[in-house]
Specification:
The chain is built from six helices and no strands. The chain is mostly helical. Helix 1 runs antiparallel to helix 5. The longest helix is centred in the first third of the chain and has 57 residues.
């Protein structure tokens, strides 16, 4: 009788242990999804701000049509990138950052634009969003790191493999220069 009780006790402990590991992996997965959602919120704020910024600059530099089209096209590409595809989002937002950099470089040629309060407010808002976006990307990558580490460590690797937990992608930039916030000097 005692042997049966020990056996059932060990089985119960094993089941509790598996449940604890599973719940831990689910908790980490939810953190990743939440942090990715935060990135999408900041990207949406950035996308919403860009048309206002372009229109403000447009009023001062109407003959710079190609720059405005590049920013608009980059914004559209970034908005249409697959929402849960980290690589597609990364590539699209790299293109947008480059186009915004050209827009701000264009603004350097117009002193009256640099003094425009609407432009300065938009510039400050965009810089704040870029800072928040950088923080959200770092948090996302930290949650992905923790999750990827957890599903590769023994004994969780066994449960993760059985239950379909797979590695997640980091939000990485191919060009290190694009990791910098858009710098605007007036």
């Amino acid at each position: 009788m005692t042997g049966i009780m020990i056996f059932f006790g060990l089985v119960a402990l094993f089941i509790i242990w598996m449940i604890a590991i599973y719940n831990s992996l689910v908790r980490m997965k939810v953190k990743i999804d939440n942090s990715w959602s935060d990135i999408k919120v900041f990207l949406k704020k950035r996308f919403d701000l860009i048309p206002n910024l372009v229109n403000t600059v447009k009023g001062y530099a109407e003959h710079e049509k190609s720059t405005f089209e590049a920013v608009t096209n980059a914004r559209t590409a970034a908005m249409n990138a697959a929402p849960n595809d980290v690589q597609a989002q990364t590539a699209a937002n790299q293109g947008l950052a480059g186009a915004l950099g050209r827009l701000f470089a264009l603004a350097e040629n117009y002193p009256e634009l640099k003094a425009n309060t609407n432009f300065l407010d938009l510039q400050t808002a965009l810089q704040n969003i870029e800072g928040d976006l950088g923080n959200a990307r770092r948090y996302y990558n930290a949650t992905v790191r923790d999750f990827n580490t957890a599903i590769q460590q023994f004994p969780a690797v066994i449960i993760a493999g059985m239950l379909g937990f797979t590695k997640r992608e980091f939000f990485e930039l191919e060009n290190p220069d694009e990791a910098k916030n858009v710098e605007v000097k007036f």
